[in-house]
Amino acid sequence: MTTSEPVQVSGLDGTLFRAEAIAPETAEFNLRLRELVKGGPGPEAGGGIPMPPTQPSERARTIRIAGRGGHELALRVIAPDRPKGVYLNFHGGGFVSGSAAQSDQELERIARNTDLACIDVDYRLAPAHPHPAAWDDAESAALWLIENAKSEFGTDALAIGGLSAGATLAASVLVRLRERLGSTGFQAANLVFGNFDLSMTPSQTLLGANALPVSVDMIRACTNAVAPLSEQRQDPDLSPLFADLRDLPTALFTVGTLDPFLDDSLFMHARWIAAGNEAEIAVYPGGGHVFTAAPIPLADQANDRIDAFLRQVGRGPEAPAPEVRRQ
Fold first, then answer.
1. How many Å from the N-terminal Cα to the C-terminal Cα in the chain?
2. Nearest 5°: phi and psi at 289?
3. What are phi and psi of 299, to 5 degrees?
4. Percentage, residues of the chain above pLDDT 90
5. What residues does 121 pair with on adjacent strands?
6. Which one, out of 145, 176, 242, 268, has a CA that is 20 to 30 A from the CA of 61?
7. Is residue 256 a contact partner of residue 194, using CB atoms and an 8 Å limit?
8. How many CB atoms lie within 10 A of CB 40?
9. Rounded to an integer, what is the distance from CA 47 to the centroid of its chain?
10. For 185-199, how does the pLDDT look when each residue is reduced to its tens digit (9 = 90+)?
């Protein structure tokens, strides 16, 4: 008779997904958000994924590097005086809208609470620049950072991540780097409500009217712009859910239960672990797409957990973490 190690059984708490798990202030905000997005531009009018208004940082600066093919690529930097590490972020916007500047307040918070230098990338946008343009720009930024972090910031402790489309780019870039360099060069991945399957996971259509604040038509319009050929949408480079995910850094997945990309994070988290990597997933009741920018306690909870995750970069296990300070 042979013996074996016991099977580990774990899973998410199903009560997180019930309506009664949604806090009253979150439910009230969602009601107001539904009314607001009813009057917004549809995909036929060029509307992208709804993003919070830009509030530029006074201390942001720009580094210009050469992208693949020789075009100029702008990196927007917000950094403390003596950073403990560097966080490379990719902004959201459905691959069709947005800019590095829209991340300023998010990156100000991260820089303040983690002592990381923060960088966002003005990658090229669809439909003028469909796949692989944004992916190539994201890879160019990552390669530049790996080569120059020590000289530019005095540290080579690196994290990568992004919101929405930015999380998709971050995951794909990690796979590219592993294939190109043999390792990713990054210690941590902060992947926030990413669209990891452009052929559409079930939640992208099944959440229907309950999804916030992104409609199925908007998702399809963005996907058509960045990936016009439907038969290519399960390409592992375009949709990293289908990629070989071995030998990737520890990751934190963040998503809300009313996000149409809920399944993308649930499935990607499972595949990340199944590939032998470390990963956590944080699921927030009633959170819609981009809920981390909302003026509600749920956003504070998610952002505090993201900051705590990123504070591990560049610090030993005994190093004290700085106090979280909000403005």
1. 63
2. -65, 135
3. -65, -40
4. 81
5. 75
6. 176
7. no
8. 12
9. 20
10. 999 999 999 999 999
